[in-house]
Amino acid sequence: MNIFKILQDIEKTDAEVYDRLSSRRKAMSSFGSMGKKVALAAVPLAMGSMFKKAYGQSTNSVLDVLNYALTLEYLEYNFYDQALKSSGLNLGANRDFFTEVRNNELAHVNFLKAAISGAGGTPVSEPTFDFSANNTFSDWNTNLQTFLALSQAFEDTGVRAYKGQATNLVSNSDVLTAALQIHSVEARHAAVVRRIRGLKGWITNDERGAGMPSQTQAVYDGEAQTTQAGINVPQISGISAAGVSESFDEPLDMATVNSIAGLFIKK
């Protein structure tokens, strides 16, 4: 999760957000130059001030988006943090990598909490997570293979979920450019986890990959698509359907993402 994704979701909720701010380009350029002028810690407060300027005291819809983002960041942070603290899980040479991922997620959590408070709202309470998914993955924090399988599922879900929102940015070149830059980094993270598991860095057809539990299939459904923009790619390229499926990555809709994430949140 990141500032550009947050602004994208806000724009989806309120199509006139940039009219309220004065202009889309001015808002983006303000954030683009922020790092040159103030410490990073001040950005959330600036963000909160921006929302107040745009919405006055009526920030409920914006805060809803921010708190939704915060809930997802709580989930990702807790997954890696609990795994790193588990005495029964040996991450070996990959411990530094997953420590870095955990720290990134904590930075996102702290950023969102500060942004929500800066906008005059109250950050949503941290949910109680069950990464065993009601004992479906009972050994997730003691069995390295189970942990890696869930990590892959979370990362692959994130890449597809991010792509699923891209069409909402077509009319916003500034944010679209930033989103694509961030998306490429997210894809690299997913590829690293897949490589750690001994897989290709990309997805073939709608295959979960060796050792992935059947419950994760929803993450990969739809990836076998071989028709792009109405063009039958195997027919014109001479490449196999499997090869074409590896050449194009498919988006994942928000309802499916929520369904996947909901498996790990205690009601």
TrEMBL record:
Top-level taxonomic group: Bacteria
Matches recorded under InterPro entries: Ferritin-like, Ferritin-like_SF
Protein name per the record: Ferritin-like domain-containing protein
Biological source species: Pontibacter oryzae
